[in-house]
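Pair request: fold both.
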Amino acid sequence: MPNAELPASTRAPRATRLATLCAFVLICCLFAIAAKEFVMPAAQPARTYPARDDHPMEKVAIAVDPYDLEDKASIFSVNYRNYGYMPVFFVITNDGDQPVSLVDMKVQMNTKDRSKLFPATMDDLTRRLSHPSRSERTTPLPIPLPKKELKGGVSRKTWDEIEQAQFAAKGVEPHSTGRGFLFFDIADISNPLAGATFYLTGVRDSKGNELMYFEIPMEKYLSAPEAKRP
């Protein structure tokens, strides 16, 4: 009788096995997330990015590549957008024969409503990640993961990720490219890139002379065909 209902004694073990299997898969997924390691993206020459500013006479070019989309931001173990931050990949290429100094580098992004955004410091990031506001808190995991040493209120892994990701170069050698992430606080901005402009000042040549300031309208990134975005 193929359509006959299975006895309760048979259905119960099957239900138990299914629940056990689901729990096992969930645990594996959670541990896979916990084990994820950050890997810095490779950088192309700055002039190959849609959002760029090239100074041919000074032989220096810069580019920015916002990690505003979920698939791009998945390289991080932390969803920084949930905490009100947007990672922006910053690239600077020196095609000259002398090094350039970034010791006095200053970055600023002006939004459409004239708000001025500056890159977050390590303290800014760890403070926000340690004490998110109610609206920024993520849903707690149903199964506790192994605890790790905390540093600055965040896990050692998160601390290391931020430290590795943040742009920290003090200079760029001849015929080379520097790269790293800048984190901008966009917690109260619904569409931070539309109409925004990225500015960079304080780049100096080997003689200490400041290069002309760099300016990148973020519309260059937004209007670029997605297939051409790095």
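--- second member of the pair ---
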Amino acid sequence: MSTPSVVVRRPAIRGLDIHVGAVIVLGMIAIGFSLHAAVTDPPPLNALLFAGLGLLAGACAVKIPGLSALVSASDTFFIASAMLAGPGPAMIAMAIDSTGLALRRKSGIGLRRLLFNATAPPLSLWAGAGVFHLLGGHAYATSASTETTAVILPLIALTAVYFGLNSGLTAQAISLDTGAPFLTVWRRLWPLAVNHVAAASAAFCFVIVMRSAGLWAASAVAPLVVVLHLTLRSILGRLADAEMHVQKIDRLYLSTIETLATAIEAKDGVTSDHIRRVQKFALGLAKALGVADELTIKAIKAAALLHDTGKLAVPEHILNKPGKLTAAEFEQMKLHVDVGADILSSIDFPYPVVPIVRAHHENWDGSGYPRGLRGDEIPIGARILSVVDCYDALTSDRPYRPALSDGEAMKIVLERRGKMYDPEVVDTFVRVYKDIAAEVMEPVAHQEALSKIGRSISASAPPKPATASTEIRADAPDDMLAIVSLSRVIGGDATFGDAAALATAHLSRILPETTCVFYIHDGASDYLVARHATGAHAAALKGMSIAVGERLSGWVAACRQTISNSDAALDLHDRGVKLGSALSTPLMDGERVVGVFTAYAEAPQAFAEDQSRLVEMMAPHLGRIVNAALRTEQRTRDQQEPRSTTGTRDLRVVFSR
């Protein structure tokens, strides 16, 4: 039987180097002594025959489903050879057999891994055969005058030492490589003991029959070994088919969950591979932290996909608001944690997904929500998820802000160390995140469909109800009264350029040292087009267009809400203009969105509350002004066009100068 593969991924780990190197050196020494002994004192023919049969049986090895291990009848013949002639011939044959099995595996294999797999089993058998010899087993096995039962105890000792050392050396290598606890790894190998016990029992039959009736009589036991091997092959084949079926169902379930979870995330304006990146980071970080419990790993894998399921209960205009949430909006946003956990509670997960989802916004210092858990009260999966979700969110473009660089994002994560996040989780993530990120992401087959979801931010968000604030008081500023008067008298020959110029002349006094832009909604393309711009950066903004629902001004048009002191880079990051903040308000004429007025300022947080309130109060009147002017322009074009061409009007956008 071969051992599970040892994957050496981090050669810098000193403990792993020492362990693997020691096994290889000791194994080589033992094999060298065996070769020397075989030359100086040739073993008996029957021992050589059993060693050769072991090589033949090893060529027919069968993979054990669920484990990176192969099983065959070779151990039966190797143990029989060791009982008859000591470990020499069996060790040499086993080294050849183990090397061949390692090379047969489909995954790539390095020299160190090959040497480890070639020397660990022979070294283990050498130790077991030595115990067998010390207990007098060799004399009992080769002498017909001794009692048969006298071989049993030494054989049990040989089997126990062989399996214990072989599995222990492998488990220690895996433990040092992955960081998983030794006993946890070792327990996963214990089922293989059944094969060793069966091999020892068959070897006992061979030796006893040979001792009492000769070699040819012993050959009568061979068909039994063949039948047992074929039976084992059939059983393992059926298990492999069942495992493949389970894996296929698991992949189907996981891909379904992933697709639905990605669609949920698309509501939040994120790219469709966000949750897949979070999942990859979470699993890689869990491994680096030494999380080895299989149920916990599966829970993290599922929770990474499903942690924001509760966002279904949060309106899109709150999820994607390009500015700071109000206290009421934040309270509504916080509900998504319990809502998501309650939804998932109806699913009978065989691993603890719900506790991770319910705690992924808890903070290390107890300041998080919804339960105020602190420290180790927070499940390790939630502590991992909160760090990687934050990092990936910061380094991704969102409707409410552009992506940060890796350095900027990691600086924020480190600032939250010990407050929001587990210090050990943060320190480990800083050490390994580049290695995890370097792995290639698989393409998403449903990318285009999910991108459409992400782009289709609902335009049905209810506009703010009309209140007394839209009425003009007698003590209102002169600039605002001028705008209102204009809305009452404009008509006839006024063009959009006339209306926009007069409006910005007054607005520039309310919003000094700003660049002001009137975006007009093009119903055919569902884009906002910059028709009029004034201020220091006006030239750079002409010709600019923004899809409704995207960036800052597009979100304002879709959700019909005013946003103050949002990041100007949301609109301008690709225009070569760096400004600090923006004030944006929808221009409405009744229920129709005519466009958006946006003012950009150099400084962050440049707009005072009074300025924002005045602009929001003027917006309905500006909307009527703009719509009236646009209708006037359209009538003028209709009258100027020849009657034969009125069916194909030129809808090109003419920019004001």
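Observation on the second member. The first strand starts at residue 62 and ends at 63.
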